Amino acid sequence: MLGKDYAYFIEIARQQSLQTASDLLFVSPSTLSKYVQRLENDLGLQLFERVGKRFILTYAGHRYLAWCQRMKAVEDRCQRELQHISANGKKILRLGFPSMHVKCFLNSIIPAFLREHPRIELSIYERNSSQIWPMFFDNKLDLVFMYKNPATLSGNIQNAVVSTENMVLCVPKGHAIASASQSRAGFPYPWIDLRAVEHENLIVVSESAQDVVGSIESIFNQYIPAPHIVMRAMVLESIAIGILQGIGISILPDRLLHLLGYRNCFDLYSFGETPVICQYRAFHYAHSSVEQEICALIDLAEENLRI
């Protein structure tokens, strides 16, 4: 139903006269008469009692009028908002990223972005990574930032590396494992053979979150025949807190620990034949209506998230 149809019905009900309503609506009485006949036929209900030349609402007509008024109000509001957007060039950019990165983005990246793009409105969705990706896949988000391997993505999804980070063994300060570490060329932290943690309690990522952050458990399985896992978590910050509380040790991205404010709470160790890295990436769809703004925000994130 179009907005003019709402207006037709509301005005006929208000004036109780096709002639008077037609004068106010600038249409012929015959046009309104055909409109009422078609509407009543479509609904299978009588909306007006014809009393002489007066059109008096039936009970069904009163209920239909109430809905017409609601729908017209919504349409009017929609038109005003679209006119405002057209006049001001305003766009909405829907962002999604793990809540653990919100603080960093709000402290530096987003304020700088809004200064450069004052006509953009941001809608921020903070979820764990396993919840964000389905929202993005359903086109409910324009841009997401997360740890995810892009190898299986469709060609319509673009991605850019925002930060390359070292995966490190993370243990509480002063942990006895320090005695097994050594300096090794090419590694950013003291190196350790992961077989040395065979008897340690380990914290890993829940299966439902492995697709977006990788399987920490699979790394331990390469070195330890039967790793002793005491906790699984979907949120990486929960793993960091578990380490801090002495529940176990784990593997996490070093940059993430810095962003969360835990970097100085732990001792960090490199491992593997070569440094093990992960990449924090930005994902968006090709040919988005906010593509220019997406690229600008990615550039700012790359600049601010370098280690």
TrEMBL record:
GO terms under cellular component: cytosol
Family: Belongs to the LysR transcriptional regulatory family.
InterPro entries with a match to the protein in the record: HTH-type_LysR_regulators (IPR050950), LysR_HTH_N (IPR000847), LysR_subst-bd (IPR005119), WH-like_DNA-bd_sf (IPR036388), WH_DNA-bd_sf (IPR036390)
Domain annotation HTH lysR-type: ranges: 1-58
Keyword terms: DNA-binding, Transcription, Transcription regulation
Transmembrane regions listed in the UniProt entry: none
PROSITE patterns named in the record: HTH_LYSR (PS50931)
Name by which UniProt lists this protein: LysR family transcriptional regulator
Stored CDD domains: PBP2_LTTR_substrate (cd05466)
Native organism: Candidatus Avichristensenella intestinipullorum
MF terms in GO: DNA binding; DNA-binding transcription factor activity
Record Pfam families: HTH_1 (PF00126), LysR_substrate (PF03466)
